[in-house]
Write a structure and sequence with these properties.
Blueprint (H helix, E strand, L loop, with lengths): L1 E5 L6 H12 L2 E4 H11 L2 H10 L7 H12 L7 E4 L5 H14 L5 E6 L3 H15 L6 H15 L3 H6 L3 E5 L4 H16 L1
Parallel strand pairs: 1-3, 1-4, 2-3, 4-5
Bound molecules: BIS(adenosine)-5'-tetraphosphate.
Length: 190
């Protein structure tokens, strides 16, 4: 299966995507994780990405798109859960192009819905106690929410119109949300 997991920062994308990828036997591909690995290794990509990530901004599309194109061309990406991509209209178009080039198509898009912004902010403030992430300060967290509202929230209807969207209530314990996701994915697998 090829799935996208979407939702605002703190909705639980990365948290849920690991188990979800195992469930569908696919690669977990998180653009945030790939950027962070490059930052910690000090690669040129990491040096470039860090400038944007630390400020809560999106890394430029040309950088992100090239990275995802390379990753999806790898042998273990025949099935995947793509976590944190696409986040802009340009990335939606690029993902369409990449998949067309691979002769592949998406099976579903899971949107983790958490409308209460304070819940999202509090989750990430809690994560900040242990994450060591430079973008987990309250000011940057709030800015990331604004960027999501301005740039990414409007992408969800594109996938709804394509009949691919599955809305999942992201409020509740991590296990409760995982069970909701599992029942949607089981229905997709038929
Ligand atoms: P990401 O790594 O994707 O960061 P995120 O939006 O905070 O989501 P994450 O997956 O980490 O957190 P989650 O909601 O699971 O992106 C970081 C940065 O990378 C971006 O700001 C940007 O700069 C750059 N970037 C990434 N992709 C990009 C792209 N496509 N284009 C351009 N730039 C890009 O979890 C958050 C916390 O909530 C965790 O502590 C978790 O334990 C907790 N939690 C989860 N579910 C919970 C629940 N049900 N109840 C209580 N707590 C819960």
């Amino acid at each position: 299966m090829r799935l996208l997991i979407m939702g605002p920062p703190g909705a639980g994308k990365g948290t849920q995507a690991v188990d979800l990828a195992a469930r569908v036997g696919g690669a977990h591909i998180s653009t945030g994780d790939i950027f962070r690995a490059n930052v910690s290794q000090g690669t040129p990509l990491g040096v470039e990405a860090k400038k944007y990530m630390d400020a809560g901004q999106y890394v430029p599309d040309e950088v992100t798109n090239a990275m995802v194109r390379d990753r999806l061309a790898q042998d273990d990406a025949k099935a995947f859960v793509l976590d944190g991509y696409p986040r802009t209209a340009d990335q939606v178009s690029e993902l369409d192009n990449i998949l067309e080039g691979l002769g592949a198509k998406l099976d579903g898009v899971l949107e983790l819905m958490v409308a209460d912004r304070e819940e999202l902010v509090q989750r990430m403030i809690k994560r900040a106690e242990t994450s060591g992430r430079a973008d987990d300060t309250e000011e940057v967290i709030r800015h990331r929410q604004d960027v999501y509202d301005q740039e990414t929230a409007a992408l969800v209807p594109i996938y709804r119109e394509r009949g691919l969207l599955h809305e999942i209530d992201g409020i509740g314990s991590i296990d409760e949300v995982a069970q909701r996701i599992a029942s949607v994915v089981d229905s997709l697998q038929g």
